[in-house]
Amino acid sequence: MSHHLDSPIARQDIRLDITDLYVFRGQTGTVFVINVCHSIFGPIPAPGYHPEGMYEFKVDANNDAIEEVTYRLTFDERDAQGNQRYVVRCITGKDAVDPHAPGVVVAEGTTGKATVTPAGLRVWADKAGDPFWIEPDVLHAVGHAFQDGTTVNLSGWDPAGAKNLFAGHTVYSIVLEVPDQELFALTCGSRRVGVWAVSTLATDAGGWRSINRVGLPMIHPLFTQFNEDLGNRLNAGRPSDDFATYGETVIKAVAGAVAANGTAEDPRAYAEKVAHRFFPNMLPYEIGTPAAFGFADWNGRSLTDNAPNVMFSLAANTPIQLGIGKESVTSKPSSTFPYVPSAHTKTATA
Hints:
alpha+beta; seven-stranded antiparallel beta sheet; five-stranded antiparallel beta sheet; 14 strands; globular
């Protein structure tokens, strides 16, 4: 999984469980997408978006791993038809880090309908197909390798029988497309940015509790499948503190797997480079360019990038293939707004 059901806290209410973050070039600007409320969890009484939560896209524009721009979405309760009203706010400068900052309302709308503002901002939120794919046997073998310091044991696995765990499943997407000129103005002209997304829940004391945080894909499947406390902790905090907080944990896990594979003369030195690449946990992107999440470079993430192959192979320092690709996704992404696959009836079980 990328971030699907990635920690005990996230599983308490999957409306706040961010499964994936995507950033790519759209028709009119930069597209930010997060998915929540995955159907693999099973039926829930009120699917969609949490009316006491916040969903935020964070943008670092000066490489200090602290946000200069926040786009925040909040949702009302579901109406009789299951629709939810939403408000989009933009918070900039020093206020971008403050969950209580009011910001400026830049869009309002209702789920299931595209909202387009006079400034060209486009928003869409509703049920969609899950564009992510993963092979469960490879997933669990990778998790054991990094937990136990072993090679990835696929001795009983036949690639010919590879299957997509998420085929036919659905999510609830939030799609935000920001015109390039607006984004450039907010980032003071910076083209190279770092992006992450956060979901938080209001507390009885008037504060906000971090539920999920996602930047790069596949961090949780690599390191937290069998360490749920680490999963909870990775979902809190902020990118600027990531290496100091989690660097040594990741270094030990990567070094153990690489040493078992025998693919580096100095496994720890290799692991240190990987940890510095993983942290701070942000998705880098150059505004106005095609997204590509590959081995050589990370530049955003499109809806069809094979993130598991890239991250598993990089961390293990040896090729790891799922045996499946984008062809295993039941419903395909679109080239036009809102880009995400259409929702469909679940045809596979997990």
